[in-house]
Design goal:
By secondary structure, this protein is mainly beta. It is built from 4 helices and 43 strands. The strands form 7 sheets. An 11-stranded mixed beta sheet has the order 1-43-40-37-34-31-28-23-20-7-4, covered by helices on one side. A 10-stranded parallel beta sheet has the order 2-3-6-19-22-27-30-33-36-39, with no helix packed on it. It has a 10-stranded mixed beta sheet with strand order 5-18-21-26-29-32-35-38-41-42.
Length: 500
């Protein structure tokens, strides 16, 4: 992949509802094509309207405690208690002894690079006018800082700055192009090969394909990039480095509002077991791709990861509302945990993901709850995914995934128990996926979520999804509406079939 592959719709076929039992008659095709085209144009319009709503959202939060103000031209010697005396750096914000009900307000239109280490009970939001404050995980714009040094290998450049944290990818010119991360596959005999081509590969000097890169973060801490069109700093106006680490690290009772969080190699916003996390009116983009563990077993690849908004562990009062999330290596939003942690941290209650626009993530919404040993002590309760517009799962830069069948708008994973009560998925739009449109399974039928009033758009005879208990794999064809209704209780389904 050199430029992002955006799917082009051609030959729109027909739209049907759950009550339709077969494809339309030939004489009705033109009418149904027109209906389908209008449906997709309407969804395009609704998605754009949702995006504008998120981008233009005003700050309405009013913390009752002390409020600190931060601007890019502030001074860390200030007290930060007025917009006229703002603080400047994220390091200073992280060092303040914040109390529950306090607030930290970042000035709109400004950019910070680094991490936010949230404090219990604190709200982080925006003040002023203009674009949302931007928090970048990328340490610097590598087109402007540092040098790209020619190496002894033609077209291979080494970046001059040390990068000790693994880089998930490089984003050029704000997303016009994206780099391909090359990792070594370690064979049983200890030989290393290129994870995409299978050729012998020992490091950065073996790069051959344009915009392939290799990061030697464990030894020399240098990044190598193949650029067949000249020096990267001359070829691109901006180069952002998605370095490993969560950009906004959350704890209990935190509210993140009206921030733009971008360019991080791990997660955008999130943490482990959390009593309450609220994320509203935020933009999160270009997240993930760094390695999860430094050394894979022989014969296997490194595992890469990265979600936009995540709680890994138990949670309560977990809300993500009116956010725009795009270009995420793994999931846009997720609540997840497995059986290898304590029972008390496996409970997931009062989770709501609503009114979000999620585009070009490998998975739009991911959830799973593993409970192999004591499923009665681990369950989800009062879970609602509602009013979300979910588009083009698996069609973003996350297509670098070694497992191409991971894409889905709802991904529950078939190996987990997923014990749940009062779990509802309704009024969402599921608009195309390169693999499962939805993946909704559980160990028992009564643990499955109930689905209603959802809209499904996918290529005719493509992958509809893995659903139910016992789960079945469904093609997206005339049988799909009845299968979803039977397995998940889907009511008032709307279906749009697209011919490739």
């Amino acid at each position: 992949m050199r430029k992002l592959a955006y799917t082009i719709l051609t030959s729109l076929l027909f739209a049907v509802t759950a009550s339709s039992s077969c494809a339309p008659a030939a004489q009705d095709t033109d009418i149904q094509k027109e209906t389908s085209s209008k449906t997709l144009k309407d969804i395009d319009h609704r998605a754009e309207k949702r995006k504008r709503k998120v981008l233009s959202s005003k700050t309405t939060v009013r913390p009752s405690g002390q409020i600190y103000y931060v601007s890019a031209d502030g001074d860390d010697q200030n007290d930060g208690l007025s917009p006229k005396r703002p603080l400047r750096s994220l390091d200073k914000v992280n060092s303040i002894d914040l109390k529950p009900n306090d607030g930290v307000m970042f000035r709109r239109g400004d950019i910070w690079r680094g991490r936010i280490l949230t404090k219990t009970g604190v709200t982080y939001s925006a003040y002023g006018r203009g674009e949302k404050p931007r928090i970048y995980g990328s340490p610097y714009d590598a087109a402007k800082k540092g040098e790209w040094i020619e190496t002894s290998t033609a077209n291979v450049y080494m970046y001059s700055e040390e990068l000790p944290d693994d880089v998930g990818t490089l984003v050029f010119n704000g997303g016009d192009e994206v780099a391909i991360k090359v990792l070594k596959v370690i064979d049983e005999d200890g030989q290393t090969t290129h994870n995409y081509t299978g050729e012998s590969f020992s490091g950065g000097y073996d790069l051959k394909r344009d915009l392939d890169f290799y990061h030697d973060y464990q030894d020399k801490k240098r990044l190598y990039l193949c650029s067949t069109k000249g020096n990267p700093s001359e070829r691109f106006s901006s180069i952002e480095l998605l370095t490993r680490g969560t950009i906004v690290q959350t704890v209990d009772n935190v509210h993140i509002d009206n921030l733009c969080v971008m360019y991080g190699g791990s997660h955008g916003i999130g943490g482990t077991t959390t009593k309450s996390l609220k994320v509203t009116n935020c933009v999160v983009g270009w997240i993930g791709g760094s390695v999860l563990t430094p050394y894979p077993p022989k014969g296997r690849q490194y595992v890469r990861y990265g979600n936009a908004v995540e709680i890994y562990g138990g949670c309560g009062e977990y809300i993500v509302d009116n956010c725009y999330i795009y270009q995420i290596y793994d999931a846009g939003i997720t609540n997840q945990t497995q059986e290898d942690i304590s029972d008390t941290s496996r409970m997931m209650r009062n989770v709501r993901f609503s009114n979000n626009l999620i585009e070009r993530c490998e998975m739009s919404i991911e959830y799973y709850l593993g409970a192999k040993f004591k499923p009665t002590d681990s369950y989800m309760e009062n879970i609602l995914y509602e009013g979300n517009i979910l588009r083009l799962a698996g069609y973003g830069w996350g297509e670098q995934h070694p497992q191409p069948a991971w894409g889905a708008h709802i991904k529950s994973w078939w190996m987990h128990y997923n014990q749940a009560y009062n779990f509802v998925i309704r009024n969402n739009i599921f608009d195309r996926s390169d693999a499962n449109l939805i993946n909704v399974v559980a160990a028992k039928p009564e643990w499955l979520p109930k689905m209603e009033n959802n809209t499904y758009i996918q290529y005719l005879d493509a992958d509809g999804g893995r659903i139910g208990q016992p789960w079945i794999d469904c093609k997206f064809n005339k049988e799909f509406p009845a299968a979803v209704e039977k397995a998940l209780g889907e009511k008032n389904i709307e279906i749009t079939y697209i011919e490739k």
